[in-house]
Amino acid sequence: MSSSLFDFVKSQVPILDVVREYVALKPAGNYWKGPSPFKQERVPSFTVTPTRGIYYCFSTATGGDVIDFVARVENCSPLEAAWHLVERYNIKVPEGVGTREDGARSYAEGQRHEVVCAFFAQWCGQQLRNSPDALMYVASRGLGDIVRQAFGIGFCPGGNAAVRRCIEDARSAGILAHELEASHLIKKGAHGTYLTFDDRIIFTIFTAHGRPCGFGGRVFRSGDDRAKYVNSQEHEFFNKRTLLYGFWQAKKVIQEAEAVYLVEGYTDCLAMVQHGYVNTVATLGTACSLEHVTQLARHARHIYLLYDGDEAGQRAMMRLVSLCWQVQLEPFVVSFPADDDPATFLAREGSLDALQEAPKPLFTFFVERLGRSFVNQSLARKLQAAREVFDAVALVPDRLQQNVLLQQAAEIFGVPVESLYQEFKTFERQLRSREARNPVSVQEVPGLALTVLEKRILFAIMKNGPLVFSQEESLLPLILSPHALLLVQKLSAVGGSVDTVMRELEGSLRQTFLEVVTEGEVVGSVLVSALRDEIFRRAWNIQLHDSKRELCKAQAAGDQERMVQALRRLQEAKDRMLSRGNG
After folding, report:
1. Cα–Cα distance between 115 and 270 in angstroms, integer?
2. Alpha-carbon distance 220 to 205, whole Å?
3. Fewest 10 Å CB contacts: which of 98, 220, 461, 506?
4. CA distances in angstroms from 37 to 149, 189, 279, 314, 372, listed in the order given
């Protein structure tokens, strides 16, 4: 039943539409190409072939169909991926093709959690419209109706009556109280049940696919001395290290602009959007993680950091230098006055154009901050500053760029650039020495390399059918590697059907076949007649070489019968070659 569900889902969902939600792709002939979503790389090597419904990632040697892609990128089983696509694209599954019981329990629980969150977001939106105080506060932050609706801004009232109303409304929507508790929206305390976000403005947090998965809550009444912000409790379906506020709403604009603004909080993000900076996202009260910048690097080339102008905000920006460079994301800093954040600045000035300084490369900002009063600092502090610069520069793979950065650091520090070069070389030697003493175990991706000729032969069978090389069938075992021959045999046995072979293959052999399918339009654009000639030529050379070697061995052993047999095989090969030429 699962197999039929897979086939049905693949027939309903274009792989290009799905992949473009994760990766910024650009057309490249018959392909679409972009950076790998699975591994950081300087040169994009991830390809999608819409006509065949497959993707292939050359940097990780992995590929497959749309279900394989979703399973890998979402870290779920193929069955969970299939149901994810059903839900995401509102596909109506015919009766008998698949049942919800096919899905894993964890996946079903995750879907149910999103349903519960969707209800709570809608419920809080209704409560906001019925609360003059909360509405007045939201309006005072300059948030219009469009932004409020797009971002799921709401209000969660407090008190026992609100708890009862929430539970009753949830029951009317088919959601039970224990489900609200499982999603950490209501809790049981010493004095009874209460709403987790009681008497707070609500900020709905969406997945990258636009499904509510959690919430942030902010106090807004004067005199409320509770924590200013609280977020949903982390659990299997809500992980702050992998979620970015506003990403779902901003993703398309980020892809178009190839740039993203990163701010520290919900209100800063909303203020930016309200003032026209739609490609803005925010972290969820945590430091920006490698997972965050990796997600952004799939869609953008430049990132603009708009952190608070205070000391804490500047330290947070400095920590991002190495993270951004690890994912080839070019970072810039937008600096605010010490007492400002993006929301307060925009409320007063109306635009970032009013900033006194233009965006500055993060490395420049980083080194300038380290270099303040460098000459007057202690030797220990100077060495520490130099090591921090070296740690960042070492992450840059390009030697010329390293030298430019070191020269810039030398100018800011006021030290001879040659001295900094030499110290950096010493630092690199020490780093390599440490790595040699503590090697990192890297698991290589298994793969079976094929020659260009083997790929062309396979692609010709895909394109022209299994009989295209019927006359050369006896010669193929001579020139093909064992795994290439196996692929030819499997492809010929199913009439050249790519989908059928993909279902039958597993492991590295399947990845090798996918690579052939992906590269086929490039390496396969050769006339079949030319391929036939090449097969005969290579087979002749192999037979000639083998016959001569056998003849030499027979002569050395004085074996007359072996010599006659070797000469006969050599003549037979010549006759086949001549008949080929006369044909």
Report:
1. 24
2. 19
3. 506
4. 30, 43, 20, 29, 39
3-state secondary structure 514-573: HHHHHHHHHHCCCCHHHHHHHHHHHHHHHHHHHHHHHHHHHHHHCCHHHHHHHHHHHHHH
**What residues have CB less than 8 Å from 78, skipping those under 6 apart?**
2, 6, 67, 68, 71
Other Cβ atoms less than 10 A from the Cβ of 542: the count is 14
Contact 188, 137 (CB under 8 A): no
pLDDT in tens, 205-264: 998 878 899 999 999 999 999 999 999 998 878 888 889 999 999 998 998 899 999 998
Count of residues in the chain = 583
Q: Which CATH number fits domain 2-103: 3.60.20.10, 3.40.50.360, 3.90.580.10, 1.10.10.10?
A: 3.90.580.10
Q: Which tokens go with 299?
A: 């869609």
Residue 38's Cβ-side half-sphere holds a number of Cα atoms within 13 Å equal to 22
Give the span between the Cα atoms of 204 and 125, in whole angstroms.
10
- Give me the CATH code for the 106-231 domain, please: 3.90.980.10
Strand 229-231's sheet: what is its strand order? 153-156, 200-206, 212-218, 229-231
Sign of the CA dihedral 534, 536, 540, 543? positive
Q: Is 247-368 assigned to CATH 3.10.129.10?
A: no
User: Would you say 161 and 177 are in contact if contact means Cβ atoms under 8 Å apart?
Assistant: no
**Contact present, 291 and 242 (Cβ < 8 Å):** yes
Name residue, tokens 């901050």.
369
Half-sphere exposure of 166 (CA within 13 A, CB side): 33
Divide the 583 residues of the chain into consecutive groups of 10 and give the mean pLDDT of each group. Answer: 72 91 85 85 83 84 86 77 82 68 56 92 96 94 90 96 96 94 90 93 92 95 92 87 92 91 93 95 86 86 81 67 80 85 90 83 80 71 79 75 85 85 84 59 45 80 77 80 81 74 72 71 58 80 74 77 77 66 47
Of 293, 284, 295, give the one whose Cα is nearest residue 251: 295
Element (H, E) at 418: helix 417-437
pLDDT tens figures, 395-415: 776 778 788 888 888 888 888
Q: What is the C-alpha end-to-end distance of the chain, expressed in Å?
A: 52
